[in-house]
Amino acid sequence: MPVAPAQQLDVVNQAARYFAHHFSENIELEVMASSIGVSAEWLDLCFDHCRGKTPFQALQHFRLSRLFEGIAEHPQSTLQQQVHRCGLASVMAANRLFEELFGIGLAPFRRVCRRAAADRLLLHRCP
């Protein structure tokens, strides 16, 4: 029985909401699929059709986006703290993925964010 693309997109959106609430935890895709009322196979199919990637790839992308935001907002935190908060395995693995996605490594990105934060402080102090 064919399923409408809107129904597949709804499954993907439910999974995205699950990611948003649990991204810092160890997520088992079978458990997540069950929690939103679908099989892991159906979840995989919906992601493939709607996003062209697996649920795991989408989760990693979500985590890396959160890591980007976290470093930009709190550049003084250690990379280990930031990576851990995002549910990623290690700084080394996160660095490789981050560089593939954003074109810059974690340490250089954090340096840029630190400089930007320092510049903002200077601007606020100038009359």
Q: How would you describe what is shown here?
A:
With 127 residues, the protein is an all-alpha fold. 75% of the residues lie in helices and 0% in strands. The protein has 7 helices and no strands.
What are its keywords?
single chain, 127 residues, mainly alpha, Arc Repressor Mutant, subunit A, 7 helices
CATH class: Mainly Alpha
| Main pleated-sheet profile | none
CATH fold node name: Arc Repressor Mutant, subunit A
Determine Rg (CA atoms, Å): 18 Å
Topology pattern, helix = H, strand = E: HHHHHHH
What name goes with the CATH superfamily?
Answer: Homeodomain-like
Rounded mean pLDDT is 92
Helix content: over 70%
* Class inferred from helices and paired strands: mainly alpha
Shape: elongated
N- to C-terminal distance:
68 Å
Q: Give a count of the beta strands, DSSP E runs of length 2 or more.
A: 0
Instruction: Work out the strand percent.
Output: under 5%
Please work out how many helical segments DSSP would assign.
7
Regions with little confidence, pLDDT below 50 for 5+ residues? none
